Amino acid sequence: AQSVTQLDSQVPVFEEAPVELRCNYSSSVSVYLFWYVQYPNQGLQLLLKYLSGSTLVKGINGFEAEFNKSQTSFHLRKPSVHISDTAEYFCAVMRSGNTPLVFGKGTRLSVIA
Amino acid sequence: DARVTQTPRHKVTEMGQEVTMRCQPILGHNTVFWYRQTMMQGLELLAYFRNRAPLDDSGMPKDRFSAEMPDATLATLKIQPSEPRDSAVYFCASGDRVNSPLHFGNGTRLTVT
Predict the structure, then answer these.
(1) Which residue of A28, A45, B106, B107 is 20 to 30 Å from B12, comparing CA positions?
(2) φ, ψ at A23 (rounded to 5°)
(3) Cβ proximity of A72 and A28 under 8 Å
(4) B98 vs A contacts (CB less than 8 Å)
(5) Which residue of B has its CA nearest to A52?
(6) In the A/B pair of chains, how many CB contacts fall below 8 A?
(7) Cα A11 to chain center, whole Å?
C-alpha cells in the first residue's frame, strides 16, 4: 500500500519569498506523483505531475517539484510567492495509471503581504 | 474546457434523511472516483468505477452508503439514512487513461444536523 506524508500542516510565508512544501511517500512499487491545489470552496486542481523521465517537473503558476527516489520525496517549490498562492496543497501518489490517488493530509500555505 | 460537474453544491439535511449526490464525469472518461474530505481525515477514497463497473468500494460504510453509475454520464452517491458524522465535502473525480491525472469536480458540501 502507498502512503503520503506532508510534513507541514501550515506554512506561512511573506509575499515574494521562496517556499518549499515537503512531501514524502512510501510505496513498495513504482508510483506516479502529483501535487494538487485547492482554493477555498473549490475542487482540486492539478499543479504538476511526475510520471517518468526528468526528475525536475515544472507546473502551472510557477511551481516546480523534484522527484528524489533515494529519499522518496517530491517537494514542491516556488521561488517567489504571491498572495494568490494562498491555498491548500496536496501531494498524492498513484500506483499505476487510472487508479485511485492516495493523498497526504495537505499543507495550508498562507502568503502574508 | 471540459470539467466534472457535481450537484448539488451544498446540501443541508436532518439526520435520518436520504441524500443523493450526483456527478457528471468528463465525456469520454471511463473511470470515476468518489472521495470524502473532512478536517480530521483529509481526503479518503470511498469508491471507484471503471467502465461503469465498481472496482473498489471498501472505503464506504456499506450499511448506509451506496454508489452507482446508471450510465456513462452519471455517477451517484447515496446515503440512507444520513448521520451527523457524514457531514463533509464529497468530491467526484474522473480519469481516462494510463498516465492521465484525475480531474475533480467542485464538490458537494453536506451538512447533516
Answers:
(1) A45
(2) -145, 125
(3) no
(4) 96-98
(5) B99
(6) 51
(7) 13
Residue appearing with cell numbers 498562507: A110
Task: Give chain B positions within 8 Å (CB) of A104.
Answer: 42
Task: With beta carbons less than 8 A apart as the criterion, state whether A89 and A76 touch.
Answer: yes
Classified as helix, coil or strand, B53 is: strand
Q: Please indicate whether, in this complex, the C-beta atoms of A32 and B99 are within 8 angstroms of each other.
A: yes
Q: How far apart are CA A64 and CA A59, in angstroms?
A: 6
**Residue A47, helix vs strand vs coil:** strand
Q: What is the DSSP-derived secondary structure letter of residue B39?
A: T
Query: Nearest-CA distance from B83 to chain A in Å?
Result: 22
Residues A67-76, buried b or exposed e (16+ Cβ, 10 A)? beeeebbbbb
Write out residues 9-68 of B within 8 Å (CB-CB) of A.
Answer: 30-31, 33, 42-43, 45, 48, 50, 56
Strand partners, A48: A35
Q: B18 — phi, psi (to 5°)?
A: -85, 140
Could you report the per-residue pLDDT of B23-60, keeping only the tens digit for each? 999 999 999 999 999 999 999 999 999 999 999 888 89
Q: Match 453544491 to its residue by C-alpha cell.
A: B9
Tens-digit pLDDT profile for residues A15-64: 999 999 999 999 878 889 999 999 988 899 999 999 888 899 999 999 99
The predicted pLDDT at position B54 comes to 92
